[in-house]
């Protein structure tokens, strides 16, 4: 990204004050028109000062409140964000190139998640300590007992976020962190940093949070990880490549900074072997695959990348998906006829086009996105890619198709010959965020869930009885776990109050019953497992 020095430079909110970088900065662009919008930069910021300020001022102020009071802060943030929604939709259209319904996934999804944690926190009321389990006798003397307690860590939570969810990616992490009493410093991905910066600006200007509770640093990530100390935590969302750098940083490798990683994922959809062409399970899979390929132009870490169907249905599924995709108009999100907007940048466009070429070394093209004309957008400028469905008759012999995540409107159809083979092929993703199962048979769903749960953070089963109420393969709901083992990063987020575990330290207090009575009142008891 080149710098356009005449453009506004977004200020960072750091060390309790607005600070503008002293460098030329990086320019954020409209991915549809190529228009230069704003610049971001953090050159010259005193990183040590900002981290200390958040840790000491923000942390102390948040910990002085109980869970119910911190929940009220989340409720106040919700009100601020709701009052400014129009501005957020405008920024999303300009900087992310999304159609309104895709902007909603990010903006309203973030606000909904905050509201959910405000309610959950309210239920914890005046508690100032969380109990993990019951008291346990330590020996013959019943008076001497152990009680596991959870206390908010006295550090700062650093979020290094991905470009695809500048709103939700902030709030799904900040809600449990702030509720726990841990101050937040967010570093949004540069390409779409504007929305994150603007939301933080609105919250700061509304004065609803104590000083130091929420900071935003835009631009380069250089030096941020170096600031982390043993009681801090870092939550990273992004590519597997950057995840490797974060994991091997001395803060994590030597200072034991707790680290949560949400990385890329080759999520699967599985059709019941007993499904029939045009049957309910068949139709449910086809609709969900089309939705997943097109929502946010496929730029969702949870999007379906691999579709597994009984071999006899390969051709019929390809045709049904193709027929629905043909109705997807792609182009300028400001045009009312457009259903799918752009990728976030021309860099991502190049990456997706190169990714499709890579997948094509092992797959045939079933639906050709490159043949689709854009609506109201210049193909030489706009980062628009139409949906592309690939397929292979030989998923067992394929390698790249199980390894390469193309972060766009791209999925690969694969036939399987037996149920056991389908599970084996799905596991070749080496750990994913979500697998969805399509069936009319509860016994098959239960079997598939048992087979897939250990390698997936979430198993989403769609049957005709839940067709209208199901929340979507790719939609991350705050009450359900988000994350996945292995290649997906090994992280865990959300899952209701489980999310608070990451921001708390567990300790076993061994003491007399009388002392434990004092320590634990008022308290809230629930099982939180970091
Ligand atoms: P990325 O290139 O890895 O960047 C992610 C973040 O890391 C950005 O804020 C980036 O800053 C920062 N960064 C880059 N290099 C860094 C370094 N050396 N040290 C510290 N931070 C560094 O990923 P992306 O391209 O933005 O995101 C796409 C990927 O994210 C996809 O693979 C997708 O699957 C994954 N994702 C996963 C989830 C999930 O929940 N599992 C959710 C969303 C996305 P700059 O932008 O300034 O370079």
UniProtKB/TrEMBL annotation:
Domain Aldehyde dehydrogenase, chain residue ranges per copy: 21-464
UniProt xrefs under InterPro entries: Ald_DH/histidinol_DH (IPR016161), Ald_DH_C (IPR016163), Ald_DH_N (IPR016162), Aldehyde_DH_dom (IPR015590)
Superkingdom of the source species: Bacteria
Keyword tags: Oxidoreductase
Keyword Transferase appears in the UniProt entry: no
Pfam family, one: Aldedh
Designated name of the protein: Bifunctional aldehyde dehydrogenase/enoyl-CoA hydratase
Organism encoding this protein: Hydrogenophaga electricum
Taxonomic placement: Bacteria, Pseudomonadati, Pseudomonadota, Betaproteobacteria, Burkholderiales
Gene behind this protein: paaN
């Amino acid at each position: 990204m080149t710098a356009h020095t005449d453009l506004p430079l977004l200020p960072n909110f750091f060390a309790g004050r607005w600070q503008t970088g002293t460098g030329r900065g990086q320019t954020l662009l409209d991915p549809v028109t190529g228009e230069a919008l704003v610049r971001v930069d953090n050159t010259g910021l005193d990183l040590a000062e900002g981290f200390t300020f958040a840790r000491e001022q923000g942390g102390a102020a948040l910990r002085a409140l109980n869970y119910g009071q911190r929940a009220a802060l989340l409720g106040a943030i919700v009100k601020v964000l709701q009052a400014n929604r129009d501005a957020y939709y405008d920024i999303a259209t300009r900087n992310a190139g999304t159609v309104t319904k895709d902007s909603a996934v990010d903006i309203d999804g973030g606000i909904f998640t905050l509201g959910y944690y405000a309610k959950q926190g309210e239920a914890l009321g005046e508690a100032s300590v969380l109990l993990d389990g019951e008291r346990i006798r330590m020996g013959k003397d019943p008076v001497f007992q152990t009680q596991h307690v959870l206390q908010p860590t006295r550090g700062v939570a650093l979020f290094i976020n991905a470009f695809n969810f500048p709103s939700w990616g902030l709030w799904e992490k900040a809600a449990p962190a702030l509720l726990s009493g841990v101050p937040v410093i967010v570093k949004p991905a540069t390409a779409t940093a504007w929305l994150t910066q603007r939301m933080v600006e609105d919250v700061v200007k509304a004065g609803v949070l104590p000083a130091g509770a929420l900071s935003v640093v835009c631009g380069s990530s250089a030096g941020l990880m170096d600031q982390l100390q043993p009681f801090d935590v870092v939550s990273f969302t992004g590519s597997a490549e950057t995840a490797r750098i974060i994991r091997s940083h001395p803060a994590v490798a030597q200072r034991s900074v707790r680290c949560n990683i949400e990385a890329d994922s080759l999520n699967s959809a599985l059709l019941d072997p007993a499904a029939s062409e045009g049957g309910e399970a068949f139709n449910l899979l086809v609709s969900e695959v089309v939705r997943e390929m097109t929502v946010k132009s496929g730029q969702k870490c949870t999007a379906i990348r691999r579709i597994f169907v009984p071999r006899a249905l390969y051709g019929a599924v390809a045709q049904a998906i193709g027929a629905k995709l043909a109705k997807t108009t792609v182009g300028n999100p400001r045009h009312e006829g457009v259903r799918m907007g752009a990728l976030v940048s021309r860099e991502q466009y190049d990456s997706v086009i190169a990714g499709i070429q890579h997948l094509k070394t092992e797959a045939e093209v079933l639906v050709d996105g490159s043949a689709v004309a854009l609506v109201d957008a210049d193909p030489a400028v706009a980062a628009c890619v139409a949906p592309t469905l690939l397929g292979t008759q030989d998923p067992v012999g394929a390698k790249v198709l199980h390894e390469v995540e193309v972060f766009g409107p791209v999925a690969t159809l694969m036939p399987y010959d037996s149920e056991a083979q389908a599970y084996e092929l799905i596991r070749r993703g080496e750990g994913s965020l979500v697998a969805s199962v399509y069936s009319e048979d509860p016994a098959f769903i239960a079997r598939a869930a048992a087979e897939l749960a250990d390698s997936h953070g979430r198993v989403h089963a769609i049957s005709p009885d839940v067709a209208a109420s199901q929340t979507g393969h790719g939609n991350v709901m705050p009450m359900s776990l988000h994350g996945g083992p292995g290649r997906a990063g090994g992280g865990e987020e959300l899952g209701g109050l489980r999310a608070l575990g990451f921001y708390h330290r567990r300790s076993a207090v061994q003491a007399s019953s009388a002392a434990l009575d004092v320590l634990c009142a008022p308290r809230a008891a629930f099982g939180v497992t970091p």
